[in-house]
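Now read these lines:
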Amino acid sequence: MIKPKWVNNNEYPFETKEFRLIEGFNINFIDEGKGETILFVHGTPDWSYSYRNLIKELSISKRCIAIDNLGFGLSDKPTNVNYSIQEQSKRLEEFIINMKLNKITLICHDFGGPIALGVAVRNPEIFDNIIIMNSWMWDLRKDSNFAKTKILHSKFGEFLYINYGLSAKFMVKSSYYNKSNLSKENYKMILKPFEFKKDRVSTFKYAKELLDSGDFTNNIYNQSKVLLNKNIKIIWGMNDPYFKPYMLDKFKYIFPNAKVIQVEKCGHFVCEEQNDLVLHEIKSLFN
């Protein structure tokens, strides 16, 4: 695909490619380098851009693949499709199978967690290593911290997301521990894919999925034992105002043998605030 002119090529110097889903929509992905496969899966309101610095370094010796989920980044943004976590997980699975990916090292963050881990519990044999950052993989409907998001299911919530870009314009800044880590240029790159109202539908649907995905994420949790023999690391920004440390404790319970890295001076976007640390932890998987 032709990269839009607004993309900063110094920050995101990759060749962009398209994968056509069986639904008829195109999703953007980058495929850089050769070697063991590292697959990056983003959350909201995010896209493969957030992994750019990791990919620049890791693609020297590894094959780095990062997708933009449908409705995000440079991918198509249809307004009338199912943006549930379950369907996004199926789309990712379709991509992985068609690309014939195997022996995958998975890097997932935020909504990318249940999207990608849903694929992993259904296909554990194709994953070797997993790194999880500030995410979840269980039912949130009884979690008081997220019960308040029920207001986002209303017409008022839809109005805020579609008309004002609530997720990208307001929540992103509040997610950083050190606001100076969010440069004007990088903030622009986060906002740009959601410039128009019609492009923000996915972010609103994701907000609803925090609760509506409960049956699907509970199923991931119930199948998580199939991943216990994987090499798992959990890197957690401890000053995340949304995905708080008690959620890390839940992951520790699910994966008792996982290596846990608690990053105190870090908010939700771990790769942006602590890129070097994440890079070190990924590289150490292959030593």
